[in-house]
Amino acid sequence: MSDFPHTPPKMSWTFSNDVNAEIRRAAATGIYDIRGGGSKRRLPHFDDLLFLGASISRYPLEGYREKCATDVWLGTRFAKNPIHLDIPITIAGMSFGALSGPAKEALGRGASAAGTSTTTGDGGMTEEERGHSKSLVYQYLPSRYGMNPDDLRRADAIEVVVGQGAKPGGGGMLLGQKISDRVANMRNLPKGIDQRSACRHPDWTGPDDLEIKILEIREITNWEKPIYIKIGGARPYYDTALAVKAGADVVVLDGMQGGTAATQDVFIENVGMPILACIPLAVKALQDLGMHRKVQLIVSGGIRTGADVAKAMALGADAVAIGTAALIALGDNDPALEAEYNKLGTTAGAYDDWHEGKDPAGITTQNPELSARFDPVLGGRRLKNYLKVMTLEAQTIARACGKNHLHNLEPEDLCALTIEGAAMAGVPLAGTNWIPGRNGGF
Amino acid sequence: MQTFDLSKDGLRALNSSLHALKGQTNMTAWEVINPKGAHAIAAGVDAPVEITVRGSTGYYCAGMNKQASIFIKGSAGPGVAENMMSGKVVIDGDASQYAGATGRGGLLVIKGNASSRCGISMKGIEIVVHGNIGHMSCFMAQSGSVVVLGDAGEALGDSLYEARLFVRGKVKSLGADCIEKEMRPEHFALLEDLLRRGEADHKAKPEQFRRYGSARKLYNFNIDNAAAY
Fold this sequence. Notes:
heterodimer; A: 442 residues; alpha/beta; B: 229 residues; eleven-stranded mixed beta sheet; 11% helix; elongated
């Protein structure tokens, strides 16, 4: 019998090692997995798109001679003082509490040096960030932790947060171990308890209410500040249209790859849409209302390179925002810290328990010893460098497409490598004129 | 007395005038006539002035108020005195939902009834309601005090943190993690002060109230409490 060939052991696709490990973890602990880092599954993304470049029908611009502008105005619809940024890559909202004070300072330093804005987060405005940010967007969140009219007035723009890409429809949680005296004081809560952030605002419930809420904020700030509305990638066509109706100057659209929010793994991986699928729908809503470029669109969720920036803008965005990429630029998940990541049971590149406050890079922590490891001046310089490189990369692509401004990139500059990418982005599958779902497609 | 006709001069002009009041102004008494339910009346004021609104207001009257004393001679729409920082807001009539939401300081007095979600997510404000309050009031209330001379609706104080709730009448139901607590001497003293400042000391006495607060069982996530979430 032993001479007969055996069927080799075969692992199940459905019950893979990862799935089985999670079942065992759930059975042992009785609690779902909470983490940051955004969706880790392979999603249709900007990698599924390519630029066509110039040819006989379109001529390119000289890379080292001809100008390709990168600036962007945000908040030109109603605000007396719209924001002018040198580059269209902004820093997304991340709270003091989730991040250390020095990390917030570094974000402000890097963003300001590169000519762009940074954003507060749940937990209020810190002096570190206000003091080092030339343009600071102040988030107006359901929890209203730290909310006050003085900070509203010293912000450069106000972002009403309705949803986040990592968890559209979900609130937030800052676990007790990150609640230092300072964080607790800013949030009017006892030290050491889990701080829940509500999933919806306490004093408005729908688009008609939101319109009145925005009126109130504009009245308090004398109609000076641009009002952004941030939405998760849930129903981008309708949400964008409703945000415009409610009076937004800017719509911030965050896809499911948005990663700095800690929440349940099941939420991160199963709710919301990838940013690639969201952008064309939001742009269509703006176009249908005659508001494209009048209400600016900032998109986020998995932006990593200048190519991603260029692709997002070619699809119709006015600017992008980065969160996870900014943390990596500051030094998070650096292989140089591999031994310490190993002690936490993980490895560099996979560390996503930012909510636990044990970050060896000293970025996503309130532990004084860990946060002291992080140099905000060096971090700010690294972020500035990264933002500059992304901008140069986007310019390189734009010039190759014959564009003298990043905003002149257009869907006609793109093709898709996959059917899914073509359908979601609304650009032809490479080598064809086929856009699934359009021009006689399915 | 500065009299401002809202129907004639408009909201922007009113709030611009009020925001221009800084420091030791001698324009300390303002009257707003013909409010006609307009929204955001006297929102964002930051001066020790008295503003009397003669009529009913829409959403967010006195929003984020600092220092000012604002008297509404009518009823107030949703979100009156939301996120108030300091000062005082007194409503002769009823208040709609979210009254005093997220308030961080100051005193809100409602001489009529308050609708649902009164004091939601409050962070230090003091609220005195002469009548009843609606369902889900004081949801996730963090700190501050609420005094209710009448009854409270369903799910009072759901997911409460450290806010102190005092109700004289019936409570239809308590929300998750909200329990009745003992009235100690300091609570009688606090109530006496709030009733006096809330212009209700002639209507009720501290010993007529029950106190409600957090059981603090949901402060840190525990899977054994999952049924409460």
